[in-house]
Task: inverse folding
């Protein structure tokens, strides 16, 4: 069985979400733990803590997790319906590119209004891609 581009992008989205967790949040936490500066139990889910960069990393990871199931539902619909085509492939590839850029903007620099607008722009591109993919599936199955 061959996987379609939207399915490959779903896998890439999941892997990206895990990498964001490991390379930002994980490195920060484990660095502090191994340096003996905090205990493993020091990180509480109900408390905002850490540097600005760490908090942005947490938010960027959560943002990935918020959008992954939505894209996953669209991909399941694509697979079940048998929808296909270069437009779906292009939208899926654009979506993952925009997701990666949005995350990198979020975690790489202290946020300014300009960067927040840029980050939102890349998020908006993802929304357009998901709505476009949905419309294409509906069009192909009606």
Result:
């Amino acid at each position: 069985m061959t996987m379609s581009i939207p399915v490959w992008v779903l896998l890439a989205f999941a892997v990206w979400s895990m990498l964001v967790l490991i390379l930002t949040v994980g490195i920060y936490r484990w660095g502090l733990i191994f340096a003996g500066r905090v205990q493993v139990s020091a990180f509480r889910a109900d408390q905002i803590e850490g540097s600005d960069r760490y908090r942005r990393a947490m938010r960027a990871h959560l943002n990935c997790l918020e959008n992954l199931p939505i894209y996953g539902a669209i991909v399941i619909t694509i697979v079940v319906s048998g929808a296909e085509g270069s437009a779906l492939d292009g939208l899926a590839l654009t979506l993952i590119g925009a997701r990666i850029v949005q995350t990198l903007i979020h975690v790489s620099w202290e946020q300014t209004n300009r960067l927040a607008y840029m980050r939102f722009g890349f998020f908006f591109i993802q929304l357009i891609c998901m709505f476009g993919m949905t419309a294409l599936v509906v069009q192909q199955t009606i």
Remarks:
- The two ends are 26 Å apart (CA to CA).
- The domain at 5-141 is CATH 1.20.120.550 (Four Helix Bundle (Hemerythrin (Met), subunit A)).
